[in-house]
Amino acid sequence: MSTEEDKYPVESDRRRFVKGVVGAAAIAGIGSTGAAAVNTATPPTGTGGGVIDFMGIERTGGPAPRGMPIIPVEIDDDGTISGRWPEVQEVEVEGQTEFIAEEELGGLTYSSQWYQYCGKQTSPALLPQAQQNNEFLSSPQSQYEWQGELGEDEALNLDHFDDYEEWGNEIGDDGVGKPAAATWRSDGLDGGDVLEVIVIRSTAIEEAAEEDEFLEAATEEGVFAFLNVCTHFCCIPGFKVSETADNIGAGDSVFCQCHQSVYDPFSIFEQSFISFPQPDDVEEPEGGGDDEEDGDGEEEEGGEDEEGGEEEGGGDEDGGGDEEEEGGEEGDDEVGEEGGGEGADEGDEEDAAQGGDDGAEGAEGAAGGGGEDDNGGESGL
Ligand code: FES
């Protein structure tokens, strides 16, 4: 059980909801006009999008332009581990009701937009108001042997990580941290709509949290999590699952087999990127969205938009190039192009990521192409 169980109580209804006025800065990102800062690959309509600061693990090598975003965790009284979903706010913009999920946490603004890349912006899981289960559920795709003892979609519990100080699996060093592959907010969803996550409990994070305001707020008991979607071309990397990674000295790093990007999960800092707007036609998952808490029953409504929106399922962690299929209408070969222009640091990745149903081709192009692209740009920081 968490020793700080009162700090971030997990609400039984799994979300916070505030209806009312939000600050001008928050509103600025809402609606299609908020896309002004987004590069030319950005679809013309949608909610949010633009330059976003986020906390992420560090990209230390390979073509990925930046790190992957942290998901703040909460642990309830019985040890169940969940990802914190930001406070949901309802705002009126140009006569339309919009929702944002955003709050101050650990000294910065935590937003659902942290995860709006690689086509995930079209996932109903990221609809601010969607009442999805925020528990981290054991992933059926997990390659960690120890997760074989868990039931399918069983919620991760702190008890599962009791041996975190010595756990090992012959890749990298023992005692670095115990990982689990999980899904988040993905009940009722499949394919590319699913949010794949890595959860790790580590003494390194326990110690770091003692001196870092954000980590103190976003981790508990040394448990932290990140969205496991490579910021290069959207593959699903792995942590301590790849002998290849071990062979190149990345056994204790997060390694993306597609083009060998490497991330240090224990180095977490503020970064920035250009998030995609959420298309207006993303529908709430079945069973969600009845927003009982504020009692008005309003739901986000959405017009059309031309973004393809369909995504397809991701690869696995050592699948040797079976990338997660994201991609979009323009997904096919733009993966090989320079993002061009401004946008710049993310350009090509975002092209590749634009949600659509031909993503598989794009992914293959990326994987099969030997990896290189011009994605030299670093993230905004
Ligand atoms: S390195 Fe991960 S998709 Fe290219």
TrEMBL record:
All residue ranges annotated as the Rieske domain in the record: 191-265
Region entry Disordered, spans: 277-381
Taxonomy of the source species: Archaea, Methanobacteriati, Methanobacteriota, Stenosarchaea group, Halobacteria
InterPro entries per the UniProt record, alphabetical: Rieske_2Fe-2S, Rieske_2Fe-2S_sf, Rieske_Fe-S_prot, TAT_signal
Molecular function terms, GO-annotated: 2 iron, 2 sulfur cluster binding; metal ion binding
Stretches with biased composition (Acidic residues): 280-352, 371-381
Record's keyword terms, sorted: 2Fe-2S, Disulfide bond, Iron, Iron-sulfur, Metal-binding
PANTHER family xref list: CYTOCHROME B-C1 COMPLEX SUBUNIT RIESKE, MITOCHONDRIAL (PTHR10134)
Protein's name in the database: Ubiquinol-cytochrome c reductase iron-sulfur subunit
PROSITE patterns (alphabetical): RIESKE, TAT
